[in-house]
Amino acid sequence: MIVELVFTPSPERLSARPAHRALLGRLHLEGRLAAAGPWADDSGALLVFDVERAELDAIIGADPYYRTPGVEVAAVREWSPVIGPAR
């Protein structure tokens, strides 16, 4: 599953980011997050999760970053990679 975020220059976003990144680190160690990071211009971010939609919805619901002013979930998409680790 792919999550695309759009950012605005809200200070709330920047103060919420460390806790969000700590959670992402844990999800990565658990194998549920393959990759994540902001666009080079910091206008948003892309996150690649290795979970089903129901679990992704739970992850998004549990992380207040996705509801912080300045952060908008622009898209959630299923992805079928041709190259990469198999599920």
TrEMBL record:
<dbReference type="InterPro" id="IPR011008">
    <property type="entry name" value="Dimeric_a/b-barrel"/>
</dbReference>
<dbReference type="InterPro" id="IPR005545">
    <property type="entry name" value="YCII"/>
</dbReference>
<comment type="similarity">
    <text>Belongs to the YciI family.</text>
</comment>
<feature type="domain" description="YCII-related">
    <location>
        <begin position="11"/>
        <end position="80"/>
    </location>
</feature>
<dbReference type="Pfam" id="PF03795">
    <property type="entry name" value="YCII"/>
</dbReference>
<protein>
    <submittedName>
        <fullName>YciI family protein</fullName>
    </submittedName>
</protein>
